[in-house]
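Q: For a teaching session next week I want to show students how multiple molecules come together into a single three-dimensional assembly. I've collected the sequence lines for a complex. Could you give me the predicted structure tokens for the whole thing so I can convert them for display?
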Amino acid sequence: MDRLAAMRRYFLTRLAGAVPTLFIIVTLAFFLIRAAPGGPFDQEQTLPVEVMANLQKAYGLDQPVWTQYGHYVGALLHGDFGPSFRYKDFSVTELIGQGLPVTFELGSIALASALILGVLIGIFAALRHNRAGDYAAMSLAVVGVAIPSFVVLPFLGLLFGIYLHWLPVAGWEPASIRHLILPVVALALPPLAVIARLVRASMLEVLRSHYIRTAIAKGLPLRTVILRHALRPALLPVASYLAPAVASIMTGSLVVESIAGLPGIGRYMVQGALNRDYTLVMGMVIIYSALLIVMGLLVDLLYAWLDPRVRLDS
Amino acid sequence: MEPLLNIEDLSVDYTHGGMEIPAVRQVSLAVAARESVGIVGESGSGKTQVFMAAMGLLAANAAVRGRVRFEGGDILGVGAESLNRVRGSKLTMVFQDPMTSLTPHLTIGTQLAEVLVCHAGRSWREARNAARHMLDRVRVPEPERRMSQYPHELSGGLRQRVMIGMSLLCEPLLVIADEPTTALDVTVQAHIIDLLGTMRRELGMALVLISHDLGVVAGLTDRILVMYAGRIVESAGAAELFQQARHPYTAELLKCIPSLTGPRQQRMPTLLGQPPRPGDPDEGCAFAPRCARAAPRCRTVRPPLEDAGGSAHRVACHFPLPS
Ligand SMILES: Nc1ncnc2c1ncn2[C@@H]1O[C@H](COP(=O)(O)OP(=O)(O)OP(=O)(O)O)[C@@H](O)[C@H]1O
Ligand SMILES: [Mg+2]
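A: Of course. Below is the structure for the complete assembly, covering every listed component.
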């Protein structure tokens, strides 16, 4: 189909267009971190001047900042994020390579649960409009939005971990879903609540439209009316919310990984920034930006699928 | 034998912003198999609501009383499942606004074929074939290409042809066409009316044609019902109504037809004065305040719909025009 071809062409053009964007982000971040007071080797007790000079030299920090920038970008083009300044003997590529799968698993499960449950609850509330089920679902949604994950997670850990002994309070084992459940719930709850409210509102509006009246007049069962005729247009606001949802889960994972002791990359962002671990922070900025850029692209394609009137001209 | 569609004493009230809006008041009407009935009246006279009730499509804030039966089966008060046994197959409706009445993200082919998949238990492939056939019958050019197009890629006239084709897929016994041409260009209107006439001759179904334009209804219907303020005020054979309208309101409506050959009006030209508003006292004849023939009795005693001589000519007026 030519529409599929148009989508692919659009995706590739926009992806190529994202490279300059990423470059600008890298440049800005590079100089901004260095403009922040302090440096990677400042600690409580000041190091002897010679030791400091040696360290600076070893990491190239004694050179003019433009030279550093040139080296960094040069290495980056070869896929090398440079050595971490604080995790001795580790390159940033290694650190991210170890942590990213954990964060990715946590984040994607959280996003998928937020989407699926949020949409289902939203539809349910719309069909129960102004009845008990609607009120119950929407009160729950308010709670979900209002309470941040750093409150939810300890509470859940207390309840399900310490009192009920159903789930581990914290920690991580490879391929263990049980360790992920509580962090996923804490991460998914806020975006889930937002999605449920968005879907409820848009579904109510779609259900009042003329084409839904036609679908009902055709004698289609309610299930078909909702799933085939009403769902896609009702999902449009969710598509717009997708990028903010991913951002919310990403920032949420910084906190949640620290509280639950998960070996993801979220903690590197916080520690890297506090330690002035320049290369580590840069690596994190690049990963997160790239993720958000790709998300934005997917959202555009999703729009085109949800509404055929959307034209994909780049 | 019971008529195909039998509406008895139907009333529809809306509560809106704390106010009761009576949309339909004690309407009784019947449509026989293969019959063609026109419904005319000013905007807001309740024409659409009567047939929304007949399709089980009334909004949630509507309170409905009375009885509606189709093929002897109750329509009011039954669940969606039993409604869906007739709705969309034997009893279908074409809506006023073809621009917004089709689902934007589904292809024309899917929207047609799903009717047959749902009601006739056909496979999608068979249903698509039948749908393409129907597009051809309602004279949509290039049916094969149209099948994979989306509604926004079609003109208003073509979309209304699609809507009409959709209503005919399961060989309906009754098609309700609610102002099917109002939203269309003047030149397209005549084609759509032609199409409805042709399809009725070919398929032999009964037709209810709702319009505020007596001119549109004239050529296509056997019998015409005139509605005013939620009530039927006159009912007669089409020819008889045009020759000798008995209700003063009908006579006014007839004067409003510009000329059958001249350009057709988009909106009905307004009569002198206002139709009654919700909250106005519901006493006597609702038309009395605008009626040149009104006497004091008209404002206090409601005239019942009574035989007015002629073959099945009925009128609700204390002082009908002479025949
Ligand atoms: N959902 C609703 N809520 C409140 N009032 C309504 C609703 N739907 C219809 N009405 C009212 O019911 C009355 C009759 O409406 P109806 O649509 O049957 O008129 P109509 O004769 O079809 O007019 P038109 O020629 O404009 O289509 C109107 O006064 C309208 O305001
Ligand atoms: Mg109407």
